[in-house]
Amino acid sequence: MGWRSKAEKAKTGHRPSLKDWACDGFNKTFPEYTAKILSLENLGYQHFTPEGEVFHSYNDAIPARLDARYTSPKQFHDNYEAKLIPTVITHIPEGYDVPNPPARGSYEEKKEQSSNDNHVSPHRWRALERWTLDNLQNDNELRERALKCGEDDDERKIRMKLKHFMRYLHNNIDDSPLYIFDSAFDEDRLAKTLLEDYKVPVYFNEDLFRLVGEKRRPPYRWFLIGPERSGTCVHIDPLATSAWNTLIVGKKRWVLFPPYLSKNTVKGKGLIKKGEDDEAVHYFTTILPRIQEAAAKSGGTGRYEKFECYEFTQHEGETVYIPNGWHHAVLNLTHTVGGEAFFCICASFLMYHQMDYTN
């Protein structure tokens, strides 16, 4: 069986009732949507309330933006994690989350010193080189590993060999393609080497899940490969956890909703028409605009009282931190590779070490 038949078998198992995965023609319309998103200024940060849309400077927006070269773990814990503020942190895969000896001088002097420093950190992730699309496709051992790309109706895992999935990634025209979201790669001797390609960022290494041991803890880390148009629908991370997600290849679009908004509100209950799909690509291009329109018409009353949402684009090398309770959805604007995890930091709320997630 070639990659096409392998993909068809996986799709039939994952969504047996969907006969035509390309029925909405997103393979033709998605490039225009992507171009519009990537043309936005201020890194595409958008804040929507019933009063209208505001394009924030990313210096004072949600998610906050931090640079691992100049932000200590204590600063992150005290000013963002403790306040449950979603955050994007740059330069973690380059190894800058591991503090260097303190530089002398003012902040601006330190910044200038860092920008002129061509030194490669010994903590740089090997994933930056190994997790490119070409290298993954040509890895003679890893390409034979079957990775999870879906579930059937009985929650049994559906897998495809990486070599077949990579062919599917580059050639499919599906509206919402299959998405490798594998948490068991560490159980396979060929794929376990992926654990050596990255390090848990220092910002997220206080993890109470470690106390229960590897055999008893729930799934908490994922290796992700997502074709463009794939993604995850709006959800809250399980077990009251928070998550971190690092993107190595590509661009992702995110939307965040504050914890006080209801599940029905953020999912667009009553706004999805009969026969419409609600996959991530449909949510971002159709359902989310309807939610915003309904919120605007309400004037911020009823179910849309205090309504707001935040959209932004995650770029290569950026790590997104999503605190406990924040609803979010993710759409792959391009082919992407990354990792994600949950982690638990205290008895009152948990955090997951993550590279991507679902409800």
Kindly describe this structure.
Helices cover 26% and strands 23% of the residues. It is of the alpha+beta class and 359 residues long. It has a single domain, classed as Jelly Rolls, CATH 2.60.120.650. Strands 3, 4, 7, 8, 10, 13, 15 and 16 form an 8-stranded mixed beta sheet that branches. Strands 2-1-12-11-14-9 form a 6-stranded antiparallel beta sheet. The longest helix has 19 residues, at 280-298.
Write the layout of secondary structure elements.
Elements: H1 3-14, H2 26-38, E1 46-49, E2 52-54, E3 64-67, H3 73-81, E4 87-90, H4 92-96, H5 107-115, H6 127-130, H7 133-138, E5 146-151, E6 157-161, H8 162-171, E7 180-182, E8 221-226, E9 231-235, E10 242-249, E11 252-257, H9 263-267, H10 280-298, E12 309-314, E13 318-322, E14 327-332, E15 336-343, E16 353-355
Parallel strand pairs: 3-4
Antiparallel strand pairs: 1-2, 1-12, 4-13, 5-6, 7-8, 8-15, 9-14, 10-13, 10-15, 11-12, 11-14, 15-16
Helix pairs in contact: 1-8
